[in-house]
Amino acid sequence: MRFMVLVKASKDSEAGVLPDEKDLGAMMKFNEELVKAGVLLAGEGLQASSKGARIRFSGDKRTVIDGPFAETKELIAGYWMIQVKSKEEAIEWMRRCPNPHPGTESEIEIRQVFEAADFAPVDPTGEQRKKQEELRATVESRRS
Amino acid sequence: MTASDVHRAIHAVYRIESARLIAGLARMTRDVGVAEELAQDALVAALERWPEQGVPDNPGAWLMATAKHRAIDDIRRTKRLERKHEELGHTIEAERELAAPDLDAAIDDDVGDDLLRLVFTACHPVLSTDARVALTLRLLGGLTTDEIARAFLVPEPTIAQRIVRAKRTLAEARVPFEVPRGDDLAARLSSVLEVVYLIFNEGYAATAGDDWMRPALCEDALRLGRILAELVPKEPEAHGLAALMEIQASRARARVRPSGEPILLLDQNRALWDYVLVRRGLAALERAEALGGERGPYALQAAIAACHARARTAAETDWARIAALYAELARVAPSPVVELNRAVAVAMADGPAAGLAIADALTAEPSLRGYHLLPSVRGDLLAKVGRFGEACAELERAASLTRNERERRLLLDRAAACAARDQAPRD
Fold it and tell me: What's the rounded Cα separation, in Å, for the pair B378 and B388?
């Protein structure tokens, strides 16, 4: 099963301050450990929200709002996608992660990724899953 | 945290640490069976103590320290009992190693080497293929005996016995806990890769029974393949195998209908492919090819899979390149199955008649007698050149040969379609 691990933003990450060499080194060592264990599928750091945007939906109306956004602690500053056997394993791996914003209080969030099989129990005929796949197909084909 | 939460956490820690733990202990004790027992003992100790004391900050080091103490006790006991000269020398050496003050640092540095030794030991040629598979999943994949049994559809005692016997065989044959060198390395590495790919294929397509996929084994094999590629980063075939498995796994979501029926590669909805895995596969293939030298069978198969992965639609597939890659594969690792695949690629590149000529030449091949894909391919190509009657007979023969129920039905449907065309008036 897969988990997406989300790193929350900090004042520094929102200000575009890059981690120093030592902190970066610690994080790279951790990432390397995940790679060597065959656990890490993907992962990226995200730039400050000042370089991003939001689209707000209201009925059929769409409004584009440029960053930065105020609620720093709710923003996301990076992610890992990992493949493990259980939520407990995901937790055990991420407990080993260095503090993403050293010297401050910070948080990462571990969320399980939906897989096709997760829809099976409430979807005996496979109808919902089919719709979901069609939706995904459309999204993917637009992306490519 | 409740007690069962802590137990789940402990098992998660053990899954993360067990391979490194067993590998480190095997270097000290020179016996993977003993090493695994020591690791299991440490797990039991953790299950006793952590629910009260909490999970330590460095659980891996705790498990290793606990197992090491146990190992030293055992060695002292053995030493008292057996005073044989050879064993004494061995024991002193092992004990010196165990007592080294900077042992944790040494373990950290050597952990890759130890894991690699464990890989080569679990896949040692003195063991049967079944034993290699079970031992690899147990010692390196961290699977329980019960999990292995369920994945391979055999009773648990069978697997338990297989593992016990494998450990005994290794001990009796005095298989050294080491990484093979020189000419030996290539052959031994290919045995390791074979075991990993076998596990992947077992998960990817069941050959018996109804269930088309047992995806957990695919994930286990992928993890092993990724670990292996990092352990031997200069071996192109390790990256080749990782690439092949990543790309094949990327199609998992697209290759079965909700009803469970398989969907052939060219009919798959490519938007359903997992592009995280596709990218990983292409990156692994690049690493393999960047290392240079003649491409091995896994890198070549991965290169073929990559041709499909790069094509946005089935129609955009570069069949000429695939046919050329199959020709190269047939040179490096000649086999009638590769030749059959080449027939398909040539048919796509140069027309069904050209492919049929290659497939026809294989009908006399004794090793393909009973292989359902030969009549399946011939049936397809015969239909494409308009020989529907022969096509129908071949597809029915293919249906009678496959052991997969869903595939059988698919083949019979195609046979029926050919029969209908055969009876339709010709223009």
Answer: 11
Which element (helix H / strand E) includes B95?
helix B85-99
Residue-range definition of the domain harbouring residue B9: 1-108
Element (DSSP H or E) covering residue B319: helix B319-332
Q: Is the pLDDT of residue B8 over 50?
A: yes
Q: Which of chain A's residues have a Cβ under 8 Å away from the Cβ of B11? A: 88
Single-letter residue type at A104: T
Name every chain B residue with its beta carbon within 8 A of the beta carbon of A35. 226, 230
Is residue B192 located within the same domain as residue B310? yes
Closest CB from B13, B272, B276 relative to A137: B272
Residue B2 token pair: 């409740």
Q: Is residue B394 part of a domain?
A: no
Determine how β-strand A61-66 pairs with β-strand A2-8.
Answer: unpaired
Q: How does the average pLDDT of chain B come out, rounded?
A: 88
* pLDDT of res. B210: 36
Confidence of residue B427 (pLDDT cuts 50, 70, 90): low
Q: Which residues from A are below 8 Å from B15, CB to CB?
A: 85, 89
Checking if the pLDDT of A36 tops 70, the result is: yes
Q: Beta-carbon neighbour count of residue A17 at 10 Å?
A: 12
Measure the CA–CA gap between B301 and B169, rounded to whole angstroms. 34
Nearest CA in chain A to B20: A37
Answer yes or no: do B144 and B103 share one domain.
no
Q: Do A140 and B272 touch (CB under 8 A)?
A: yes
In this structure, are B251 and B135 located in the same domain? no
**Chain A partners within 8 Å of B275 (Cβ):** 140
Mutate to test the interface with B, among A88, A143, A144 (most CBs of B within 10 A): A88
Which of B7-11, B89-93, B164-168, B216-220 is most confident?
B164-168
pLDDT at B96: 56
Give yes or no for a contact between A16 and A47, defined as CB atoms under 8 angstroms apart. yes
Domain A2-113 has CATH 3.40.50.300: no
Average pLDDT (A41-54) is: 95
Instruction: Determine the distance in angstroms separating the CA of A16 from the nearest CA of chain B, rounded to an integer.
Output: 27
- Are B309 and B193 within one domain? yes
> Which residues are bridge partners to A109 per DSSP?
A6
Nearest CA in chain A to B274: A140
Structure-token match 């956490």, residue found: B9
Chain B residues within 8 A of A136 when measuring between CB atoms: 271-272
**pLDDT over threshold 80, residue B168:** yes
- Which tokens sit at B50? 């952590």
Taking an 8 Å cut-off on Cβ atoms, the answer to whether B271 and A37 are in contact is: no
H or E stretch covering B247: helix B236-249
Say which of B12, B253, B259 has its CB closest to residue A92. B12
Please identify, among B295, B314, B333, the residue that sits at the C-terminal boundary of a domain. B314
**What is the C-alpha to C-alpha distance for residues A31 and B346, in angstroms, rounded to an integer?**
43
**Shortest CA gap B270–chain A (Å):** 8
The verdict on pTM exceeding 0.95 is no
| ipTM passes above 0.85 | no
